[in-house]
Fold this sequence. Notes:
Elements: E1 2-7, E2 10-14, E3 19-23, H1 31-34, E4 39-42, E5 57-59, E6 63-67, E7 70-78, E8 88-96, E9 99-103, H2 113-119, E10 124-127, H3 136-146, E11 150-153, E12 156-157, E13 162-163, H4 165-174, E14 185-186, E15 197-198
Parallel strand pairs: 3-4, 4-5, 9-10, 10-11, 11-15
Antiparallel strand pairs: 1-2, 1-14, 2-3, 6-7, 7-8, 8-9, 12-13
Helix pairs in contact: 3-4
Amino acid sequence: MEIRWLGKSTFEVRSSVGVVVVDHQGKLPSPTKLKDANTVFVYSSDGDQDHSSNDFQILTGPGEYEIGGLSIRGVATPADNPAISKKINTVYIVDADGLQVAMLGNPGSQPSAHSVEQISKVDVLIINTESQGLEPDELSNAIRNLEPKIVVPSGYDSQSGKPGAEMQRLLTELGVKEFEATSRVTVTKSGLPDERTIMVPRQHID
Length: 206
């Protein structure tokens, strides 16, 4: 499996059975660059954007989906303080190539114990650090609760060669002092680390 960060909040997860493109800001990447027989665009929140499906599948909420060889689950978590809002954020979990890859989205409150139980096992957790409703300590706590083997955060500034401010705050909270940014993150079931590892992608530009 290969994971690439396409900039802003957009990630591409490319497996042997299909491609999932996650974009929490609602802007479709160019289909000509991502054309695949089994491509799925997923959105953690369904706003007012016009999602043009073309030949692709678009998922915008909780549920269980089987598309081609891809198995995808969407688990609802609060998009804001649940005491004042019923808006939801969807955590998507993609099951492919023997790996469970979760996209955290933009939760506005800690996922409940019930949500964590529904999300279940997580091998790889993808995080958009630039647009988060959680503070770094809350985000770090959510990561610990989900217990991923690999964390893939956005927000590395390739021009400066340094993490962006939000990403740096999260890395500091997680106690990460050294890392090597890569243009793509390659993950295999047999290659999963024994302890949690942060794998930082540089923005991929075709």
